Amino acid sequence: MMGLTDLFNMSKPEGDKQKELIRQLAVLGVKNPSLCFQCAKCTSGCEAMKLLELQPHSVMASVKTGFLDEMMNSDVIWACVGCFKCKERCPQEMSPVDVMFILKNWYVMSGGSLPGDYQNLLQGILSTGYIQEPVEVLDKDNKGWSREKLGLPKRGHPKNINGFMSALSQLAAEKL
Ligand code: SF4
Ligand code: SF4
Question: From atom 2 of ligand 1, which residue's Cα is the shortest distance away?
Answer without folding.
Answer: 90
